[in-house]
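Readers of this paper often ask what the protein records in our data store actually look like. This encoding replaces a full spatial description with a residue-level series of whole-number codes. For reference, a complete record is included directly beneath this paragraph.
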Amino acid sequence: MASEFVHLHNHSDYSLLDGAQTVQTLVNTIDDLGMDSVALTEHGNMFSVIPYYKAAKKAGIKPIIGCETYVAVGSRFEKKPRADGGWGNNHLVLLAQNYKGYQNLMKLVTFGYLDGFYYRPRVDIDLLKEHNEGIICLSGCLKGEVTEKMLKDDWESAKEAALRFAEIFENRFYLEVQNHGIPDEAQNIQNMKKLAGELNLPLVCTNDAHYAKHEHWEAHDVHICLGTGKDRDDPNRLRYATPEFYFKTQDQMYEMFKDVPNAIENTRKIADSIDIELPMGDYHLPNFPIPEDASDKDPDTYLQKLCETGVQNQYGDIKPELRSRLDHELKVIKKMGFAGYFLITADFVKYAKDNDIPVGPGRGSAAGSLVSYSLGITTIDPMRHNLLFERFLNPDRISMPDIDIDFCIERRGEVIDYIKDQYGEKSVTQIITFGKMKARQVIRDVGRVLGYSFGEIDRLAKLIPTTLNITLEDALKQSPDLREAGEGQYKDVIEYSKVLEGMNRHASTHAAGVVIAPGDLTDFVPLYRSPQGDVTSQYDMKGLETLGLLKLDFLGLRNLTVIDNALKLLKERGENIDIEKIPMDDAKVYKIFAKGLTIGVFQFESSGMREFLKKLKPTVIEDLIAMNALYRPGPMANIP
């Protein structure tokens, strides 16, 4: 049964260090309230869209994709302090009504970061005019332009602003009212009722939910302090005026807004007018530029010819065993539609090698592919080492290939620049990642905000067992000392930390990930500019995979740089060494490994690994392969 009221203005923890609820908590709360639809409107960004959309769909809840945007006072290009001391922006809530609206919303939030950022990612009226199609507009909270001007008794300017938005968003603009027990909001309700009557504009009510339950308001307050770098007892810090910014029931909303004409009904009307499906399951690979002189422009045929040439170069004649393996791999690649992926990857690896940029031999399951080996993507012979192709690509488990390529850390950027030149600057960018508040981190963060000394909070955090990805709930079960502390002196720290644990803490740039689109990226994903100036996608690695976009891992590996420098120094002394052809049976090398003298050797330099090497005393390459495979979470528990 459809709910009479729909929450249209809400925030998750992707409104970084402000929203104090995860996407899953938000969806669960709406489900518990018996509502069938909900909007998510982060502050100036669309970080949460993919996880939110998937979680809502899974729960049988209609997702409404939106954003609480910051609209510049004047042009988005004006970036100077204002005479009134403000940040030069007002809030405006935008909701995607259809797929075109979703695409326009992506464009708007991208421009906000790339063009208009000044304290906040700002759009302006010109952008709204250009990208309004398919978008429903709500006038915003107390920081909305219409509301702000009416509260300053500038009625004429407020009317002008409302009419301007009503003209831009024709029949899609609503005057928004809220009631969190703030006196200005009560005044605004009366102002908006009057304005709606004068201008014949519809009203809508929202609750600007930043956390799921009323009792979470204190944890949210601590969260705000984290975001602003303040202690909770600082009298001058930012704080929310009341503890009412949570998901209220339909009955609560009705009681607050029953005297506001159609404010409840219009939430339902808006939700019913929205029809949007995000395309998932299709792949969007860029077109590989096959050379003009190629006899056949079909990617699968071109890939086959390159592979056959590569196999002949590596093995000489293509024996029946090689032919059978190559045909099998190419058949699977063709069936899954991934010829372009291999051509693209082989091309930038070739570019790196042609320009003397050190490239790793390949790692992970990609080394099991004869196609990868024949193209020069990997340099490990899968036939000699009896490696399985199905661990890399399996037609019964359709997913994009994932080849991690190591490059010299000092020259990795040159390869990314080549990709941008090849496929277009607007089609290539780095990928965002989000740091989360894990058990120990959240204890330290909350304790600092609450004014505890570093020493005592450090001691409390260290009571949490070092188990990988342990939660506070599990830590409290496993550690009697932590449980005792949480029931006594540090009860507030533990309680707030349990609410905030697992939430996003900050955004950063993925160390290796790059995404390539078959056209303008902003047709597929919104973009973000970090405080350091890096441009990234607003969707993380998993979100990009869900959308079927090509992501590549360009790993910067210092060990390759060290090896390259060593080879250059040897060359200066008249010794030329081909690192690809060094012997694998040098007994002196294995003696070094057996003594654990492997600091600086990739994946063999940790103290635990060095101890196990001393016990194993490897004598052949297969010993090192086994050691490397076993020394990782899970299998390492079985190492005696």
The CA atoms of residues 594 and 614 lie 5 Å apart. The longest helix spans residues 183-199.
